[in-house]
Amino acid sequence: MSDTSRKTALNPATHTTPPAKFSHGVRKGGILQVAGQVGFLPAVPGQPPAPAGPTLREQTLQTFANVGAVLREGGASWEDVVMVRVYLTDTDHFAEFNELYDAHFADLAGPPPARTTVYVGLPAGLLVEIDALAVLD
Amino acid sequence: MSDTSRKTALNPATHTTPPAKFSHGVRKGGILQVAGQVGFLPAVPGQPPAPAGPTLREQTLQTFANVGAVLREGGASWEDVVMVRVYLTDTDHFAEFNELYDAHFADLAGPPPARTTVYVGLPAGLLVEIDALAVLD
Amino acid sequence: MSDTSRKTALNPATHTTPPAKFSHGVRKGGILQVAGQVGFLPAVPGQPPAPAGPTLREQTLQTFANVGAVLREGGASWEDVVMVRVYLTDTDHFAEFNELYDAHFADLAGPPPARTTVYVGLPAGLLVEIDALAVLD
């Protein structure tokens, strides 16, 4: 059991290495911040990061899995998340994304987190990025 | 009085229903996060959400009102806000937005929150989105 | 020594005046939020804010310095930062930015913060904006 009062990096073993010197998540005390996650599949040694597929659906499901893995690494779950930031690249994706979002949170115990969604540029081939802030007891 | 140590959803009665399974705000302990608010008028049963008007001024004033309602729902006020995130769609709106912003915060007791402003895409017809992080005693 | 349990504005003496009624940073209790910083040089009385130079490198280095000054003003350091939000304007800047980022954090004691990077619009002439969330003991 790690000392949660100290700042701790959260880097799930299956995650790809970040493209710069940052952590996939950080916990310090009761605050857990998940870095922007995209739809990269689990890391394959010797190969560059690759998204789960070209579609919004494939990437969104993988992105949720990646955020969830960071939460678990920090001893948290989706129930602890207070804010989800969603970055999409195309306003035409909003309806489909919301269907996937609702399905993901369908079984959540307790109130769903707050959310902000904006449309930005992302690296070529990526359609969605999500980060999250959790507050633990 | 709700138990503020538990995660609580903040959804003012007059707010339109979110387009997906998220809360307009969440409070857990001393952290209150307001979801991205836009210039939607109070909900009218049976009608889709509609912005206060087509102009930056109308939408900004309504957006401030909507953020404020979520803060109040969580027992907070603008004085508790430490960070405001502003999403505009056009750099030409910066000067007018800042005038409205200054007027909004003119009577604030104590130091104004921090702020980040960036230019992004928003759903058609929307010119401004704002979210906020508050820290309560 | 200020009373860190109260909301305190963090505005380093050398920083340019914000373009609206917001603080360059705010600390309340253990939470310190740095507002979006850009590559503006130290303020020169009677002159408008000016970036350190036209290049990504010049602006990024100055932006790091500006974020760092706000952290110090609040009694914090980069070691306390849990989240860095990076706003770039061009995906072609990613590799060069990451080199500068890695150099900045090379000597950091302890785990690096989480990070989200997205591509947005910024005011003319600005190539990078960074804000940061720190959690203090």
TrEMBL record, chains A, B, C:
Residues 1-25 are annotated as: Disordered. Signal peptide: none annotated. Keywords: Hydrolase. Residues 7-17 have a biased composition (Polar residues). The keyword Hydrolase applies. The keyword Hydrolase applies. Pfam families: Ribonuc_L-PSP. Its EC number is 3.5.-.-. GO terms for molecular function: hydrolase activity. This is RidA family protein. It comes from Streptomyces desertarenae.
